[in-house]
Amino acid sequence: VELTLLVFLPAAAAGVILLLPRSMEQQSRWIALGASIVILALSIQMFFAFDLGAPGYQFVERREWVDIGAFNLQYFLGVDGLSMPLVLLTTFLTLASVLVSFSVTHRPRAYYACLLVLASSVIGVFTALDFLLFFLFWELELFPMYLLISVWGSGRKEYSAMKFVLYTIAGSAFMLVGILVLAFSANTFDIEVLSQTDFQDTLIPLGWVFFFLFVGFAVKLPIVPLHTWLPDAHSDAPTAVSVMLAGVLLKMGGYGLIRISITMMPGIAEDWDVWFAAIGAISVLYGAFITLRQTDVKRLIAYSSVSHMGLVLLGIGALGNVGLVGATYQMLAHGLITGLMFVMVGLMYERTHTREIARLGGLARQMPLIATGMVFAGLGSLGLPALAGFIAEITVFLGTFQKYEWAVLMSIFGVVLSAGYVLWMLQRVVFGPVKHEWDGVTDQRHWWEHTVVIGLVALVVLLGVYPDLMTEMIAPAIDSIVLRIEA
Amino acid sequence: VNSLDVVGPQLAVLIAAGLVLLVDSLIPQQRRLLPVVALLGLIVSALWTTSWVGRGDYQIAFDGTLALDKYSVFFYYVFAGITATVVLASIDWVNREGRGQGEYYALVLTVCSGLMFLAASRDLITIFLALELSSIPQYILAGWGKDSKSSEAGLKYLLLGAIASSLLLYGMALIYGITGTTLLPEIAAAIKADGETYRGLLVVATILLIAGFGFKMAVVPFQMWVPDVYQGAPTPIAAFLSVGSKAAAFAVVIRIFFEGLDADFLSDDWSMIFAVLAAASMTLGNLMAIVQTDIKRMLGYSSVAQAGNFMIGLAAISVAGEEFTLGASAILLFVAAYAFTNLGAFVGVIAISQRIGSDQIKDYAGMWKRSPVLALAVAFCLISLTGIPPTVGFWAKIYIFNAGIRADLVWLVVIGVLNSVVAGYYYLSVARQMFMGDAEEDQKFRASPSITMALGAATIGVIVFGIIPMPLMSAAQDAVEIFAR
Known about the structure:
The complex is a heterodimer. By secondary structure, chain A is mainly α. Chain A contains 20 helices and 2 strands. Helix content of chain A is 73%, strand content 4%. The longest helix of chain A is centred in the C-terminal third of the chain and has 32 residues. Chain A starts with a helix and ends with a helix. The relative contact order of chain A is 0.10. Chain B is mainly alpha-helical. In chain B, helix 13 runs antiparallel to helix 14 and helix 14 packs antiparallel against helix 16. The longest helix of chain B is centred in the middle third of the chain and has 32 residues. Chain B is globular. Chains A and B meet through strand 1, helix 5, helix 6 and helix 7 of A and helix 17, helix 18 and helix 20 of B.
C-alpha cells in the first residue's frame, strides 16, 4: 500500500484543502506541508527498505481495474532502481515547492490543491506499470499545471500555459497511438509483459511506433527543436511551479525514453541511437548558445535546462550501462540543481520584482545569503567536481565516448559554454558594483526559505561526494535493460 | 398485453405527453406542474425498462419489427436520461417564453418516444416511422423561439431534414427491391444468399442510407444545417439535437449495418465510407470550430467533429473479424459519455447565457469569479470533451481509438488524435476565458435550481464515470453482444 499512499495522499490532501472554509484558507499551506512531509518520509522509508539485490519491481500492487474483452487494464504500481530515485526526487521537490510557496496569498486553497494534484500525477507516472495508467497520469498532470501557470504565473502567463498544454497534448496524442499499437500486438497493457515481448508484425512498422512514442517523450524532455514551450512556461510560472517543472516534469520524458522506448523496442533503439546522440549533442550545444544570449534570469535557467537535458538524451543514446546510469543520474542532479537555482531566483524576484539581468547587480552586498545560494547553484550547474552535476556529466561522457566521440566532444564544448553563461550571469547579478536601487531589500530570512535552501544544497553535495547511494540502486535496473538490448 | 409490455417505456413517455397537454388545459394556473409530469413519465419509463432488466425477459415482438434486447434497453436509459436533462434545462426558458408551455413538453416527450422506437426497430418501415416520429416534433421545437433566427433554424432543419428523409427512403426502397423484405435479419439472409450479384446497387443503397442518417448524426458532408440550427434553436433544443438525435442515428445505423448489411463483401465497402466520413468530419468540424466566436456555433461544429469520433467506431466494426462488436461497444460508450458531457456543456451555456444575455465566448470572461461552481462544472465538461482525465471523455476516446487500432485503422486514429489536439485548443480557450478573463461586472450569481440539478447530474456523471469507467464499459459491451457472430 506504500505506493498507493504515495500517489493518492497528495490528491486526498488537495481534496481536504478545497473543502476548507474561506476563513481558514491561510491554513491550507499547513495541510499541504503535512502531506508533503508524509510522502517524503514514506518515500525515504521505501528507499531504505528497497532490496538492492532483488530483480524486478518492488512494492508491487496489482489489481484488476477494467476488464472487458479486448480492453484490459490493471491498477498496477511498482518501483525499480530506475523509478525509485525519481520518486524520491519528486517527493523531495514537492516539499521544497510547498515551502517556497508559503508566501502565496492569492487563492491559496486552489493553489495548494493544484500543486498537490500535480505531485500525485507525477508520482503516478513514475510508478505506474500499466501502460494506460501511465498515460492517464501523464495526461492528468496537464490540468493542475495549466491552472498553476495561468493563474499564479507572471508575464504572458496564459499564453505560456496554453502553449505548454498544447505541446504536451500534441506529444501525447502520438504517444497514445504508439501505446495502442503496442498493446494490440502484445494483447496487454502490462508494462512488465510489454518489456519482455518481441514485437513482430505490428500494425504499422515498429519504427513508426517508436517514432510516435519518441515524439511524446521528446516534447517533455525537451529536445531541440521541440523545446520552445519550455522557456515560456518556466519563466512565466510561479517559483514553486518552475521548480516542479524543471525538477521533475522534464524527467518524465527521460524516464519514458528509458522505461518504454528503449526497453520495449531495443532493436529500433539500436538503429536509432546515433540520432539520440546527435539530437542530444545538438540540444546541449544549441541550448548553451541560446542561454548565453538571455537577458532574463529565469529564461536563462530555462534554456540551460534544455542544454542539460540534452545530456540525458546523449547518455541514453549510448545504450550501455554507464551511459544510461549517467543519464539517470543527470536527471537527479539536474532536478536538484536547477530546482535550487529556481528557488534562489524566486527568492530574489520576490524582493526585487525584476528578473532583468541588466537591472540587477551587486546583490551579494544586499542579500548575501541568497547570493551565496545562487553562486552555489551556479557552480553545481556548471559541473563543479564534488557536486552532483559533475558526477552525472562525467558518467554520461564516459559512457558515450567510445561510441560517439564526436557527440561527446560537441557536448563538452557545451559544458564549457555552461561555465561561461553561469559565471557571466553571476557576475552581472550577484557581483559587480552595488546598485543603490536595491538598498532596502531584505535577505533570505524565513525559516521555510532556509529549510529549502539548506536541504537542496545538502543533497547536491551528498550526491556529489557519495554517488554510490544512488548508483547502487540505479545500476541493477539499468543492467537488466541493457541485457535486453544486447539480447 | 405482452406486446404492450414491450413498448411500455415508449408508451409511458407518450402517455406523459398526453397528460402534460391535459394538465395544461385543465389547470392552466398550475403551469409549474408540467415539467413535473414530464419527468414523472420519464421516471416511469426508466422503471419499466429496469423491470425488464430484472426479469431478463428479452424478446422480439410485433412480427419481428421491434426488438426488446439489451441493446435497446441501453438506449432507453440513455434517451430517458437525456430527455430528463433537457426538460430540467428547459424550465426557465419555457417560463420566460410563456406561450405553449404544455405543447413544448409534450413535443419533447414525443421526440423521446420516437428516439426509443428507433433504437428498438429492426424493420426498415418501422425505422422510417420512428425517425419521422422523432424528427417532426424536432422541426417544430427548433423553430419555437420568437426571433427570426429560431424560425430560420426551424425552416432550415425542416427542409434539409425532408431531403434527408427522402434520400433515406430511396435507399430503403432499393434494399427492398433487391431483397424483397424489410426485416433486417431477412435482409441479411437474402444478401448473403445472392447479394453479390447486386453489389453495385447495394453500395448505392448503402450510400443513400448513410446520407439520410448522416444528416441526423451531423457528419460531413451533411452538416451544413448544424451551426445555424444550433445557434437559432432554443438552447435546450440544440442540446437535445446534439446528443439525442445523434445518439439515435448511431443506434439505428449500428443495427442496420450490423444486423442487415453485415455481409463480408459489403462491409468492407461501407467501412471505408465511414472511415473517410469520420476523417472528414473530425477535421472539418474542428477547423471550423476554432474560428467561432459564438459558443453555440462552436459547440455545433464541435458536435460535427465528435460525430467523426463516433464514426471511427462504425468504421472499425466491419474490418475486425473476430472482434466484430468492439467498434459498436466503443460507440455505445462514446454515446453515453458524450450524453453526459455535451449536455453538461450545453446546460452550463444555458445557465450562463441566461444571466449575461449573450452567447459570445468573449462574454464568458471572468465566470470563475462570478459563479465558481458553475464555471468549474462547465470546465470539467470541456475537459471531458477534449478527452483529458479524470473524466469520462478520456475513456470514451481511448476506447474508440483502441477499437480503431484493433481494426487496423491506424491512419484514421492518427487523424483522430491530431484532431483532439485541435479540439483541445478551442475547448480550453473557453475554459481559459472563464478562468482568466476579466469580467466587466463581477456580481456573483447562481443558476436556478432546475439548471443546477441538470448540470450537477451531468457533471457528476462526467467525473464519477471518469474515475470508475467499468460499469459504463461493461454495459456498453453487454448491449452489443446481440451482434456478435
